[in-house]
Amino acid sequence: MKFIVLSDLHLGPPGEPVNGLDTGARLAAAVETINRDHSNADFVLLAGDLADQGQEVAYHALRDLLAPLVPPVHITLGNHDDRSTFLSVWGTERDDPQGRVSEVIDRGGYRVILLDTSEPGLVSGRLCEGRQAWLVERLVEAEDKPVIVVMHHHANRLSLPVDAIALEDGPRFSQILGAHPDVRQVIAGHVHIPTTGVWHGLPMTTIAGSHYSVSPHLPGMSGRQKCLEGPAQMAVVLADDEGVTVHFHDYLDRHLTLAPGLFRHG
């Protein structure tokens, strides 16, 4: 199985920059890159913060920008999204009574769970009792399958400023996932920086996403965390019987390509 994760699109009205960046053009570049390099992907997951301010016009723009995409797309929400406005554009059938804008994809011997961690009016993430029960049920159904979870908010401590708006009640979330015998990856957006780690025995990954990126402002570093115009990044997830690999594909960056003559081979 191969799939793509995009996050933090932060779309505004077409033609209007968001934090100085043309987020519509950045998503268009992501679609072009997927169609060129990853058209063989089984699907694409959008892990929230689709719109920067939850505007209806942004969700219409999202539909238009995704129209050329070759692989099928599955969507969940982030803290910048407005659930009711999204559903008014994309369809109320996407709202599960318990799981909210969550869904399950069974492919390649895996269960992929796309989990809605957003809560209206809240910047940090939250799983209500309904979504906790929904997640438990989906994991029990897949007891004989390896599982990958994709969501917007991170749950594990990164020792970065964004920890102040992580998923609430992380210990309960880890207990739910820890009851499954084979969770192979938990992938999140939200933090605008790529990280990997192990948390309560669970493999955790975050991606920088499509909007601005941030510097790794760790404890002991002076000054303030920097906001950077790139790279714009997607995750390319490869999964087989042996395990899962997450590649960080920077589809917009300013790095120079070094000339082949600079390298010796053999």
Could you explain the architecture of this structure?
This protein has 266 residues and is an alpha/beta fold. It has a single domain, classed as Metallo-dependent phosphatases (Purple Acid Phosphatase, chain A, domain 2). Helices cover 21% and strands 25% of the residues. The chain has helices spanning 23-37, 56-66, 83-90, 129-141, 170-178; strands at 2-6, 43-47, 73-76, 103-107, 110-115, 147-151, 183-188, 195-199, 202-206, 213-214, 227-228, 232-239, 244-252. A six-stranded mixed sheet has the order 4-5-6-7-9-8, with helices on one face. Helix 1 packs parallel to helix 2 and helix 2 crosses helix 3 (83-90). The protein is globular, with a radius of gyration of 18 Å. The model has no long low-confidence stretch (mean pLDDT 97).
Helical percentage: 10-25%
| Count of discrete structural domains | 1
How would the global form be characterised? globular
Strand content: 25-35%
Beta strands, count: 13
Strand arrangement across the biggest beta sheet: 4-5-6-7-9-8
CATH-derived architecture = 4-Layer Sandwich
- Main sheet characteristics: 6 strands, mixed
Find the CATH topology. Purple Acid Phosphatase, chain A, domain 2
- Structural class computed from helices and strand pairing: alpha/beta
CATH class: Alpha Beta
Alpha-carbon distance between the termini? 33 Å
Low-confidence stretches: none
Characterize this entry briefly:
By secondary structure, the protein is of the alpha/beta class. 21% of the residues lie in helices and 25% in strands.
Break the fold down into its secondary structure elements and pairings.
Layout: E1 2-6, H1 23-37, E2 43-47, H2 56-66, E3 73-76, H3 83-90, E4 103-107, E5 110-115, H4 129-141, E6 147-151, H5 170-178, E7 183-188, E8 195-199, E9 202-206, E10 213-214, E11 227-228, E12 232-239, E13 244-252
Parallel strand pairs: 1-2, 2-3, 5-6, 6-7, 7-9
Antiparallel strand pairs: 1-12, 4-5, 8-9, 10-11, 12-13
Helix pairs in contact: 1-2, 2-3
